[in-house]
Write a structure and sequence with these properties.
Elements lengths: L1 E6 L9 H4 L2 E5 L7 H14 L2 E5 L17 H21 L4 E4 L3 H9 L1 H14 L5 E4 L4 H8 L3 E7 L23 H13 L5 E5 L5 H14 L10
Helix pairs in contact: 3-5, 4-5, 5-6, 7-8
């Protein structure tokens, strides 16, 4: 099991989150981050000894990358390639290899369900990241099928701080209670998801209120359950 956290998004992002994660998904400037924030996130990841994944999105800073089909597949491909190249170049200066990609927000969901957006994401990531090994996304998605067809690994992702419905699907962010902010509840959900066998990696969001307290509770619970040792390194 792997514990990934979306990072490099906020000016006031706690450095402690990098000691909690096993993988840092570093925002590449599409929805947030870039520039000094990107460099700081990479330095913190290096110092903490955690793996780095590219975290590209639609180029939608005003909407934090949460507008579905914000750009057409062709424009999306160009933007994602530019974002991943930016991250790769900065990472190389620090001796960091970027071996995986986790799309952000609406692009995550569009690439999971629409072959055109999945192909755009894959084409961009493969071009920009020669060391690419894994894509990250929901289980049973279009992206999973197409990633395997390209010879790439695919890490099925669950969320410790997002609520699931009775069918096992994520509750939309727009619904009341979609975000879980109680550390104990997040820890309990993380262990349940980890033990269920459906997921390879679990996510926490660095911009969730109380993210450090949530992260510490989740990591400790996963370690106690014996789920974190042997985490997937990217």
């Amino acid at each position: 099991m792997d514990l990934n956290i979306d990072l490099g998004e906020l000016d006031a992002e706690p450095a402690a989150l990098f000691d909690i994660a096993t993988t840092a998904n570093v925002a590449c400037g599409g929805h947030a981050g870039g520039g000094a924030l990107l460099r700081r996130a990479l330095e913190r990841a290096r110092d903490a000894g955690v793996s780095v994944a590219a975290h590209p999105s639609y180029p939608d800073r005003a909407g934090f990358g949460r507008s579905s089909r914000f750009s057409d597949p062709s424009a999306t491909k160009r933007s994602v390639e530019e974002q991943c190249l930016l991250l790769r170049d900065e990472a190389e200066l620090l001796g960091i290899e970027v071996g995986s990609v986790k799309p952000h927000g609406a692009l995550y969901h569009d690439a999971a369900s629409d072959p055109a957006y999945a192909t755009a994401l894959l084409d961009a990531a493969i071009t920009a990241l020669p060391s690419l090994r894994n894509l990250v996304g929901p289980p049973g998605s279009v992206l999973e099928r197409l990633a395997h067809a390209r010879g790439l690994g695919y890490l099925r992702e669950g969320f410790a701080d997002r609520r699931y419905d009775e069918a096992g699907q994520l509750v939309p962010r727009s619904s009341p209670g979609a975000l879980i902010t109680d550390p104990l509840a997040c820890a309990e959900q993380a262990v349940a998801l980890g033990e269920g066998g459906r997921f390879d990696t679990l996510c926490l969001h660095g911009d969730t209120p109380g993210a450090v307290e949530i992260g510490r509770a989740v990591r400790e619970a996963l370690e106690r359950a014996g789920l974190l040792p042997g985490a997937v390194r990217r």
